[in-house]
Structure formats: C-alpha cells, structure tokens
Design goal:
The protein has seven helices and no strands. The protein is mainly α and about 180 residues long. Helix 2 packs parallel to helix 4 and helix 3 runs antiparallel to helix 4.
Length: about 180
C-alpha cells in the first residue's frame, strides 16, 4: 500500500472542513441570522409559532438568494426585533405579529429583487422592457432600502410612543374591563 493512501482520509476530512468553512464565510449573514430567528421562534407562543417559522424560513431564503445587503438588513431587522420584544411591556403579543409580518414582507422584497436581477438581462432584448428598466431598477433598489428603515421605525415607535398610562398595562386592562369597579 503506498504511503499516500494512508493520508487520503485526512485529506478528504480537511477538504470537507475547508468547504464548510468557505460556505459558512460566504453565507455569514445567513448563519448569523439563524440566531435571532431561533430566539424569535422559540420564545413565541404556540398560536403564533407557525407564522414566525414561516417568516424565519422566508428570511433565511431571502438572505441566501438575495444580495448581501438584503441579508444584512434582515439580520439587523431580526436582531432589533429581539431587542424590542425584550423591551416591550405594553403589548408584546401584537408586536410579535408585526415583527413576523415585517420580516416576511422584507424577505419577499429581497427574493423579488433577486428574481428581478436574474430576469433583467433577458428583458434587455425586448425594447418594451428596455425602456422602463432604469425606472424599474430604481424602484427595486429603493424598496430594498426603504422597507427595513420603515420596519425599524415601527420598532422604535413600539417601544417609545405609548399613550401615557396611570398604572401598569395589567391594571389598565382590569380597570377598562371592570369599568373602574372592583
């Protein structure tokens, strides 16, 4: 048996480790995005969990197939959502629904931008589409920036813009339900 044959399993193992390292670095935003999405899914109550899982799956697909900017924005949105949900004491249940919807909507924007990027070169051959391609590219580019900024604005509003309360949210709910009588 040649001496090189004994080294082959170690070379294959090293090759596999290097391939996994490359794929991890190439998709680092998707790898990092998995952590806040896991927290969002695991801490969500049972009725909302399928929706949050769907939004998380769409976010991972958007980070994988979309541009690097889309992956970074999804990571920022998911991380800010975790922080906001931990800070929010007024109505965290509703905030979770808004987070799931916002992340899913932006994942669709990112996937749509990726599909447009794939189809744009083939549309150049048709003069009808070529005339409007600059306009359409501008809309796609602006949408990938404006949507997460609006989402982050919604998160800021959820934390700091509450009506003034005379007590805790539980006391207010009790007072509203019993009409001030105990």
């Amino acid at each position: 048996m040649p001496p090189n044959t004994l080294l082959l399993p170690f070379i294959w193992l090293l090759n596999g480790i290097l391939a996994l390292t490359y794929l991890t670095i190439e998709n680092i935003t998707m790898v990092l995005l998995a952590f806040p999405l896991y927290w969002l899914i695991s801490t969500t109550e049972k009725a909302q969990r399928p929706w949050m899982m769907g939004a998380g799956g769409m976010a991972l697909a958007g980070a994988m197939f979309g541009s690097l900017a889309v992956g970074i924005w999804l990571l920022v949105m998911a991380s800010a959502s975790v922080l906001t949900i931990r800070l929010e004491k007024f109505n965290p249940h509703t905030l979770r629904w808004r987070v799931a919807g916002g992340i899913a909507a932006y994942a669709l924007v990112g996937l749509g931008a990726a599909i447009y990027k794939l189809l744009a070169p083939s549309m150049m051959s048709d003069s009808f589409f070529a005339q409007g391609q600059v306009y359409l590219s501008t809309i796609v580019g602006v949408a990938t920036i404006i949507a997460p900024v609006g989402f982050l604005g919604m998160l800021v509003q959820a934390v700091w813009a509450h009506p003034p309360l005379e007590g805790s949210p539980e006391d207010m709910y009790s007072q509203i339900r019993t009409r001030g009588r105990r």
